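[Automated response] Your request has been received and processed.

Submitted sequence:
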Amino acid sequence: METNTACQAVSSTTVFGDTSGIVYQNEYMLFRNYPNPAQSLSNAALSCVKSTYVSNAEYLEFQNWVRDSIAREHIYNDVESDAIALKFINVSKSELKSFKFNLDDRNENRSRYNLNWKTKFSYADPEFLPFLYFLYLPPNERFCHRKDIDERHLRYIYIQSVQKSKGELKNFHSNIPVILFQDFWAAQSASINDEYSVLGQVYDQLLPTQPAVGLTGMQANAFCHWKELQLQQELNKKHLPYLVQVTLPLVSELTAKSPGALSVPPKDYTPNWKITVHDYQLFMHAVRDSFITEVLYAELPDSKEATKLIQSKPLYFDEGCLKFVKFNSDKRASNREVFALTENGSILKKHKEEIKKIEVRNSDRLDIYKYYRMDIKSKTIVGKLENRERYNLDGLNFEFLHTSEKDSVTKEPIGMDLNLDYVNMLSQGSGVRGHEKYRRFIVPELVQLTPGIPIENQKSEDFIRGISYEQALAYYHWKYPIWKVRATDDWQKYVYPDEEQFKRIQKGEQVFSQQHELNYPTPVFRFVVTFTAMEN
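Generated structure:
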């Protein structure tokens, strides 16, 4: 695990008792930098500010740690084999032989031993997947069937010991969702898949060195607590006599020399956005073949023959019964929900007569393309904060942050209620931004592809004429599908033109974007590391 932390040479002006936080519009989460009760304030201490802001990669490491710790807990508690369960806690062979160790009491054992991070596991392991399934997005909330981890379930739970004015210690339990709400980029989006919209979907994946955005003060504070544990472990391994504390800096230090904006490199979009007759023909043929394959799969008399048209597996995880089952070729409808179509030219050639009949029956549907897009701009709406109060650690007095914005039809909140005491169906609370139902942001689009000018009257190498902006968007979605993004991709590849830019492309003009900057949609943050010498 990479936990190296670069600090500036100058000391931080943050002292114990200061307050800090993250500011977003009129939201202001405050935290007091209380001293660790084990630290002696009489000892010399060095405080330094992290030289760079917490990056997407650093915050992703935190998220992955939380995800993996939750998974390990569930594996330890739920796996049937005691021998496998024992591999997930730090218990030595000598302790196993001790008469005090109770092999049958997992709760007791877990209370005495930490998780064992040396034991590796796979999320796809058939033995573990049934009780790790809850970590994934439910099927009806997946964008284009992509099976992603549901970050709304990732929660960092920790106990913070606070030394009050009279010297007494008080423990506070924190349970913070660690979701990185990068969608805030899209709040300024003006067209489908413009720069802001694309960044709202791939910013953390494709720009790992950029500062993390979209976090509340509570999440930043949770990150600091986790980072403190990692750094202390490193010091302990090296037998260095110091205690470490990681806190948020003063607001003045938090905003000082803030990067403020993302630098976007120059880009000639003309090659990406131009659509030749040949390009569009390939698109229409792909849509036609997909429709024919779909109907052929449903209508072929022989189920085993039909199975050759989908990407089936002999054994697969059935999300309905939460277990692995054998593939049954006769269950075509349910199989199609699980497995995507596959290109199988030999099967299509073999059934030419059936295909001709399908084409005759469905001549008016062969050029209709259905696709899905994420309404990422609406996804950024989280409600309007109507008042602002301090989060008081001393007395645990919570004041409400709430929203009155509701859907005009369903009357449900558009965004998550930001009442600090509010807990939704996903057990989210603590002012963390998020939504309960992602499926309402997945928008289906149905487009008829035939150009207004007959395609057979146009030359293959020419720009396609007679297509609308909606038809062009359908092509761009097929050519550059953002839901298939890979970590090595250039994020600008997924930017689509607005209607005016599309018209310029159709006229044969060049569309070139100069280097420019996009302001970060929320504050970014760094932290202060304080080292205190341990008393002999």
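Summary generated for your ticket: The first helix runs from residue 56 to 78. DSSP finds 17 helices and 16 strands in the chain.
If you did not submit this request, please reply to this message.
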